[in-house]
Specification:
By secondary structure, this protein is mainly alpha-helical. 61% of the residues lie in helices and 6% in strands. The chain is globular and about 45 Å long. The N and C termini lie far apart (41 Å). 1% of the residues are buried.
């Protein structure tokens, strides 16, 4: 059932929440300003978990959006980051 699946995923989602909060604490100011203005975007297969965006938004107190075509957005974003790595050197750390 949906409830059983939700309970099974709860620990993993909690770890995602904690990882996001930790990442936000160490995010460079210029990127943090953009994140606080625009929110976060969920990508990949996990973004398709129903209600994950709302749960994360409630936990981190920021807007959380599901990317258009989340399964392909990871590849597109990686390509953009690699083309622009000189603008965002912290990505390569």
């Amino acid at each position: 059932s949906y409830q059983e699946i939700a309970e099974a995923l709860d620990k993993s989602i909690f770890k995602i929440e904690e990882a996001i909060l930790k990442a936000l604490e160490t995010t460079p100011p210029e990127l943090a300003a953009d994140i606080y203005r625009r929110g976060l975007y969920l990508t990949g297969g996990g973004a398709l978990l129903r209600g994950l965006d709302k749960r994360l938004s409630a936990k981190i107190k920021l807007p959380v959006h599901v990317a258009d075509d989340p399964l392909k957005s990871v590849v597109r974003g990686t390509g953009i980051a690699l083309k622009n790595y000189q603008r965002f050197p912290f990505i390569m750390k």
